[in-house]
Amino acid sequence: MRKKIVAGNWKMNKTLQEGIALAEELNQVLAADKPNCDVVIGTPFIHLAKISDIIDHKVIGLSAENCADKESGAYTGEVSAAMVKSTGAEYVILGHSERREYYHETYEILKEKVLLALANGLKVIFCIGESLDEREKGIQNQIVKAELEGSVFNLSADEFKNITIAYEPIWAIGTGKTATADQAEEIHAYIRSVIADKYGKQIAEDTSILYGGSCKPSNAGELFAKPDIDGGLIGGASLKVADFKGIIDAWKK
Ligand code: PEP
What we know:
An 8-stranded parallel beta barrel has the order 1-2-3-4-5-6-7-8, surrounded by 7 helices. The mean pLDDT is 97. It is of the alpha/beta class. It has 12 helices and 8 strands. It has helices spanning 16-32, 45-54, 81-86, 97-102, 107-119, 132-136, 140-151, 157-160, 181-199, 201-206, 217-224, 241-248; strands at 5-9, 38-43, 60-64, 91-94, 123-128, 163-167, 209-212, 231-234. Residues 9, 168, 173-174, 212-215, 233-237 line the site of phosphoenolpyruvate.
């Protein structure tokens, strides 16, 4: 059975103190009312070590939002997968469209990052998704397939079991525009079929595929009700406990 997951992506938000307060509040709220899905928070690097000490890792997983494509050494300003792991984090988000677009992360760079993350015992939440232009041209399936082939289909079947996919149409991220549940389901089912072609039906059935893009408490229920949508990667709505909890609770309905 594949996991249901609600993962937050704080992006470049929250000072250390604000982040600690947010994690403490979420930890308390979920201790009082246990989720029936896996919950992960993706935080900036500076928060990881402190937050790792605060949260109950049995209830909340901890993720970085990036890691370096090099193992160690003279790469000023970079943070390696081993460093991320040493904070107590269990996950890293890779391939986010903001990293692909603003920091020019290519398929090859992401391939290296994924390999280093897995080699250091991190699970990867790997983001894929098309732009508005690509959706309007009707080539969204080709795009997500190429992103998978370019950066994660080199993995062995055993390695691939540590990958969670996040389908995030770029036109829906932070825009308030959500893919309809039917639009999302259609491409999630396609992604699962591409994984099945590569790794076989069982691994495809066991792979969690999250939806991301303006997911909020009011639309999470409809999205999560679809058979191939296994949860969400949540940006804006992960910055307030009430909103994030509202999305987590969509799995209780
Ligand atoms: C994201 O960037 O991963 C995301 C899904 O953002 P938002 O929920 O704000 O659209």
